[in-house]
């Protein structure tokens, strides 16, 4: 009874906080900015239900033509993230950020990116803790990993944009009108240099960034367990299963938050396999030290793909996206790695042998020269 009373009290307190924030927004700004602030509060209110789509659409609509409104929106979201100690508010705010980065004006990327780099800690949730309930650790952990993923994804997209401009010799100042590299909408941003045309160092750099992004995604797998004796399909549990019966990995808000980033992970996977294909095609032509780099990359990818396959299996069970949408995750078997390692050893031994032969020939040449010099010296002495 005390637990239920405490839960009701927290919900009531959260509702009061939301109403207070809405009231302050209405009196503290112009009409349009007030509407924007109110929509942000409503999109991230304390209720343990997914955000209503109409509030996100309203925010996108209010900020679609104004850089000033985008800046105001980012500032409001930043304050909301920094002030809250409630995992629901924090996660729903991050879900809003994800939507704005994916579907909003490209200026959102720049505002959030440079806001973070100026020290406002926009997506730095490393010290976030919700201590309101005994099982809130799982939720707090998910908030932290989700924020890390969004930050890494934003970093990758901004680097891709700078790299694209550099490839054409254009100034690297940010262009608000340029479409971002967006995993949610790949068609909007063609790559400047196709992967198969990239030099080895560029391939290694890109692979490192994409692998790091995949690592952040894998860390978003929620923890916890079902405390009840039943398991409801996602389509039912999203609206009817009691919140107190679920831990983080079966919580409806958490699962809705996973939907878009799981979809994005499909493209991350395809990007990695594309680079893998190019590295395999060039493997026989690479220098030994580059071959060793490729081997290390494949060892790491093998572990990541195993984790990814497990994550995808869980996502399919929960009902995140259709099973037919998921890629068939490639297995990097120990046999494949053994073949690569053996080739590197053979190539290294061959190179070492060539060095030895070259050194021997050089030594013989030196000895012949010495003999000639000695012979010439002796002849002069006899004369």
UniProtKB/TrEMBL annotation:
Matching InterPro entries: ANTH_dom (IPR011417), ANTH_dom_sf (IPR014712), ANTH_N_plant (IPR048050), AP180-like (IPR045192), ENTH (IPR013809), ENTH_VHS (IPR008942)
Annotated SMART domains: ENTH
Region (Disordered): 169-191
One GO cellular component term noted in the UniProt record for this chain: clathrin-coated pit
A GO BP entry: clathrin-dependent endocytosis
Keywords: Coated pit, Cytoplasmic vesicle, Endocytosis, Golgi apparatus, Membrane
A molecular function (GO) term: 1-phosphatidylinositol binding
Gene3D superfamilies: 1.25.40.90, ANTH domain (1.20.58.150)
Residue span, ENTH domain: 28-164
Mitochondrion keyword on record: no
Protein's cellular compartments: Cytoplasmic vesicle, Clathrin-coated vesicle; Golgi apparatus; Membrane, Clathrin-coated pit
Protein name per UniProt: Epsin N-terminal homology domain-containing protein / clathrin assembly protein-related protein
Native organism: Prunus dulcis (Almond)
